Amino acid sequence: MTTTVPPGTAASATGVPHSDVDPFAHDVLEDPLPMHAALREAGPVVHLDRYDVFALARYDDVHAALVDWQGFQSSAGVGLSNFRYEEPWRPPSLLLEADPPRHDAPRRVLQKVLGPRALRRLREGWAADAELLVDEVLSRATAFDAVAELSTAFPLRVFPDAVGIPKGGRERLLPYGNHAFNAFGPDNDLVAKGTPRVAELSGWVNAQCQRDVLSPAGFGADIWAASDRGDITPEQAPLVVRSLLTAGVDTTVHAISAILYAFATHPDQWQRLREDPSLARVAFDEAVRWESPVQTFFRTATTDVRVHDVLIPEGSKILMFLAAANRDPRRWADPDRYDLSRDPSGHVGFGMGIHQCVGQHVARLEAESILTALARRVATIELDGPPVRHHNNTLRAWESLPVRLTLG
Ligand code: OW7
Question: Is any atom of ligand 1 closer than 6 Å to the C-beta of 294?
Answer without folding.
Answer: yes
